[in-house]
Specification:
There is one protein chain. By secondary structure, the protein is mainly α. 69% of the residues lie in helices and 0% in strands. The radius of gyration is 14 Å and the shape is globular. The N and C termini lie far apart (44 Å).
Length: 107
């Protein structure tokens, strides 16, 4: 079993301000941020639910665009494959929810 990792949502949200300034809604930086998160989760041995929580917060706080999430999901960059399969599997529901939210917007 991996580490027990608690995600402190308040702490993350505090740092989102900084992240937003740094990423500045630039798609390539957003994608790099998602890769970095994937690498972090991989190094922690994929604690349950943690990546999903991060994705939810980063989306809700408008730090990372839908576009960047989809790019990450579809990316097959060979340099970024470590832990990708497990990571994608753990956020399947996030993407289902994202697509449903999109469909609702279009109605």
């Amino acid at each position: 079993g991996g580490y027990k990792v608690e995600v402190d949502a308040k702490e993350i949200k505090r740092r989102c301000v900084l992240l937003q300034r740094y990423l500045d809604h630039k798609g390539d930086l957003e994608l790099q941020a998602l890769y970095a998160l994937q690498a972090l989760i991989h190094s922690l041995e994929h604690p349950s639910g943690v990546l999903r929580t991060f994705f939810d917060i980063l989306y809700d706080e408008d730090i990372i665009s839908e576009d960047a999430f989809y790019k990450w999901d579809k990316s097959d960059d060979p340099a970024e494959q470590a832990g990708k399969g497990v990571a994608r599997h753990s956020v399947v529901q996030f993407f289902t929810w994202l697509r449903e939210a999109e469909d609702d917007d279009q109605d």
